[in-house]
Amino acid sequence: MLASKKQEWAISHDYAPQTDVRRQSKPAHGLNVELRKNCCALAVLLLLLASIATLQTERIVSTGYQCVKLQNDLKVVEQKNEKLRVEIARLKSLDRIQTIATNNLGMTAPKHVLESPLATSSSGKLAAVQQEAPRRRM
Q1: Cα separation of 55 and 10, whole Å?
Q2: Residue from 90, 134, 93, 94 nearest 116 by CA
Q3: DSSP class of residue 113?
């Protein structure tokens, strides 16, 4: 068995109060608080940027849907407008007006049509002929 020399220990019995010196720069458990703060700030910043991008995309999509809806509404209005043009043309037709005048209003077509002959003068303008048809009194 190996034996070592006897060592003497110096024990002092001075019990003076010592100041509690702790590490203030680094916690005892080895965590880096500054790094955690920076990572949390970065995560919040990324979350904020992602929410802004999402809101902008939502706005673009909703504007696209509005545009498509307005184009469909425009097509419907143009179709109604065309139908109204056809209806106006049908209502303005002379055959329809003549039918209403003779059937509903009791009008008759004239039997004698008086026309005044037109002649051209030497200057090329239209001039009425001096002779007029006799006027009827009613």
Answers
A1: 75
A2: 134
A3: -
CB 84 within 8 A of CB 96: no
- For tokens 């143009």, the residue is 78
* DSSP states along 30-98: ---HHHHHHHHHHHHHHHHHHHHHHHHHHHHHHHHHHHHHHHHHHHHHHHHHHHHHHHHHHHH-HHHHH
What is the radius of gyration, based on Cα positions, of the chain? 54
Count the Cβ atoms, other than its own, within 10 Å of residue 101.
13
Instruction: Please answer whether residues 108 and 102 qualify as being in contact, where contact means their C-beta atoms are separated by less than 8 angstroms.
Output: yes
CA 125 to chain centre: 59
Entry pTM: 0.44
Tens-digit pLDDT profile for the chain (138 aa)?
Answer: 567 777 777 777 666 666 665 555 555 566 889 999 999 999 999 999 999 999 999 999 999 999 999 999 999 999 999 999 999 999 999 999 999 999 998 898 888 888 877 755 555 555 444 444 455 554
